[in-house]
Amino acid sequence: MLEVDGVSKIFPPATGILRAVMRTAGDQPVTALDEVDLSVAPGEVVGLVGPNGAGKTTLFRIIATLLEPSAGRVVVGGNDVINSPEEVRQWIGLLLEGDRGFYQRLTGRHNLEFFGVMLGLSPAASRSRVEELMSQFGLADRDRRVFGYSAGMRARLALARALIAEPRLLLLDEPTRSLDPSASVDVLDAIRGLADVGHAVLIASHRLNEVVTGCDRAVLLIDGRVHYDGSPDDLITAGGMLRPLVELVEDD
Questions:
Q1: Spatial separation of the C-alpha atoms in residues 41 and 145, rounded to whole Å
Q2: Exposed, middle or buried, 105 (CB in 10 Å: 0-12/13-18/19+)?
Q3: What does each of the 252 residues of the chain score in pLDDT, given as a tens digit?
Q4: CA dihedral 92, 97, 102, 107 (to 10 degrees)
Q5: Which of 6, 181, 226, 229 is the most exposed place for a label (fewest CB within 10 A)?
């Protein structure tokens, strides 16, 4: 479903007037990703774990065709993100950390219907799909204007939006951020249910406990490099040189 092969991303330093406008402190290139290898199969939930600034969101943006890699290759459903971006987008449902893309004075249902049409569904098909998703995520009987949603309801609504076009690959960047433990469990259970019906899921997180309980595999990303790819349980108990990296994530 998803193959990331030797992906690197280097951001050059800002120059000239752009440097003044951006108020950047550095004058050297920044390596956000360094030869990252990663795969996700259908029905699998992979947790991409690492501290803030590890490169998780940069990798998500590359997979979602929002950024181009400096080197390496990303393939989604047999489609290259550089050569076939439109085809890749049809495979992907994206949830970015801190996403505030909902229209606050519309109801959750009306928001989803709008996004469904924007993604190419007919108005009738969008309404039908939205009713299905509202029921699936426990929102049908509690619909209201989005500014009145709780954090947990917003998280479920964001998941529903990512699923409108029935994508086969879900990219979920910090889907439980700012949620209380109960709401986090609900969201993780919903994600597991999606994997159980064949979706491939990549979750970016800095919460090791959620990766251990909710993911089939864990990938540890530190300073743009993959330091571990394997069992979540083994990541927690890893010793030797790997243990200080795990503690860095736990302390973040």
A1: 37
A2: exposed
A3: 899 999 999 988 766 665 555 555 566 788 899 999 999 999 999 999 888 888 998 999 999 999 999 999 999 999 999 999 999 998 999 887 655 678 889 999 999 999 999 888 899 999 999 998 998 888 888 788 988 888 778 888 888 888 888 889 999 988 887 677 777 887 788 888 889 999 999 999 877 888 888 899 999 999 999 999 998 888 776 644 455 555 556 555
A4: 90
A5: 181
